[in-house]
Amino acid sequence: MNLVVVESPAKAKTINKYLGKNYKVLASYGHIRDLPSKNGSVNPEKNFEMQWELDSFSKKYLKEITDAAKESEKIILATDPDREGEAIAWHVKKVLEDKKLLKGRKLERVVFNEITKNAVLNGINNPRQIEDTLVNAYLARRALDYLVGFNISPILWTKLPGSKSAGRVQSVALKLITEREHEIESFKPEEYWSININFQDSSKNIISSKITIFENDKVERFTFKRKESVNKASEIIKKKNYSIKDVINKVYKRNPLAPFTTSTLQQTASGKYGFGASRTMQIAQKLYQGIDIDGETVGLITYMRTDGTNISKEAELDFRKFIKNDYGEKYLPQTPNSYSGKKAKNAQEAHEAIRPTNIKKKPNDLKKYLSSDQVKLYDLIWSRALSSQMKPAEFDRSSIQITSSDNSVSFNASGSVMKFDGYLKVYTMPVTDEDTKNILPEVKIGDSVSIDEIIDEQHFTNPPPRFSEASLVKKLEELGIGRPSTYASIISVLSNRNYVDLLNKRFHPTDRGKLLSAFLEKLFAKYVDYNFTANLEDQLDDITSGKTNYIKVLEDFWKDFYSNVGSVKEIRTREVLDMLNESLGDLVFEKDKDDQIDRNCKACENGTLSLKNSFHKLCNFYQLSRLQVYKATFKSKSFADGKFI
DNA sequence: CAGTGAGCGAGCTTCCGCTTGACTT
Questions:
Q1: Which residues sit opposite A251 in a β-bridge?
Q2: pTM reported for the whole predicted model
Q3: Which nt sits closest to A161, CA to C1'?
């Protein structure tokens, strides 16, 4: 018998079907080992030696694997074809080695580019060995994340009580939210005016247009800043005669969107149904693992944690057949649509895009087997995937230019009509302004038109919007920070630690979050920089390609980081406060009106109550945030003297 | 006399990425 190890049980089941009785396919359920959550798991003094510990959770699954290994001639490690997948294969190998189970057995590393019968058999027939350079890139990533997190976090416990954690990913996510808040706070709305004119042709048809040129200059957003300048312009406009200068008719196409990745699914499910990131993932997980349909468990979608936008050749053929049969030849592009060019930063593309496993299972037909949430999400995935292989939608867009006889003032009217729905037949998009504009009347160049109505409107510029779960995930993905499997948990870490509040589906940083972010920005700027992860990824690529080794990368990082940590530890609390006060203004020293806190503060200053105890007590007893208490205690003498460290 | 609260001291917290299923609301 041969043992095959993959990462997830649902996948194990599918692959077992393809491989038949001579193979036993088991799931590792993740990495199986990790660095223990305590000090000293990585030792920079000894070439960054790492201690590994079996996950308590994967122990029972590991027993199945070791038992099966004993009865196998060959052990095939078929985890995902990316860095973390290679690492899992390596961990499994190491554990089997430790248990002396590899003697007399062949060990192979195999990758499947997609989970179809052909690809699986093809993979099995082309085995290789574990790639050490890829494993080394993982080791560097893992060690660095540990060193950053487990060195900065304890500093917070003493210098910034209440703030519990910092890390390469969570701290940048927090920074995005606090910086946006700062932009909003300092935003000053600017006034501007728009001028639209309804013209009338000789048959009394109305043409709605907006001004493009005034007194020979192009009109821009801030051309008319005040009511007076609009009034003056209107007087000038009224006095002129107008005619049709140009008519342009064009066909434009709107292309379908790529099938879903984790990130785009989370964004769309949030926009369309208001699902939070973790809710979306839970529903998708169920659809992936399988739904009971007439006594049989059927996995309805492909893997939901992915950054890939391609779909398997087999699925592509199925989709095309389905489009041809159900919608007709005219919806089928000549060659299949491809989306591989638009990949996200740092995408590993180890998995296909999220798509239905069987396109013939229509959302409507599955209604009686699924919960309403499941139907909604399946429908979204089904239609997005199918539409991605359909033809673009086509619109007739016409635009009319209306100009004054002296050519000094010009207006533009445009309208468009859909003439072929294409992919919009199955995937409905929020309709944009561009598509809804009225049909324009038939006019000829040279026709004269008269002004029917001048519409001037006052506007103000708006501050940038606060991040939602969806827009935060989108931004993180753009920056290449975090992975499909972690987007949802990044959000819960920020909320659970009370760094942010989600109000009306928008992230507001708490006082604590602002304080923490300012602290990190002041004292660990390099490690919360938006480009830190991107630079790290470049170095990891160099490790993978053999250009450099992982010890060197870690040493370079550690030299700077270690001295940074050292100097922050030296800083007196008082200096930290001064720095924070500079960047946050009255947030830190704001006088709190609460009498209870004032009394405790006095007790601190008189020496009848130790600061640390008052701190804990106040927090627990009055149910105050640490920061509120902080504001008060900062004023006390012992704090100012730096005794509280 | 019982219950309450002030005060003290010891012990704890933490990273990212890969899994699932057991929790709660």
A1: A396
A2: 0.86
A3: B13
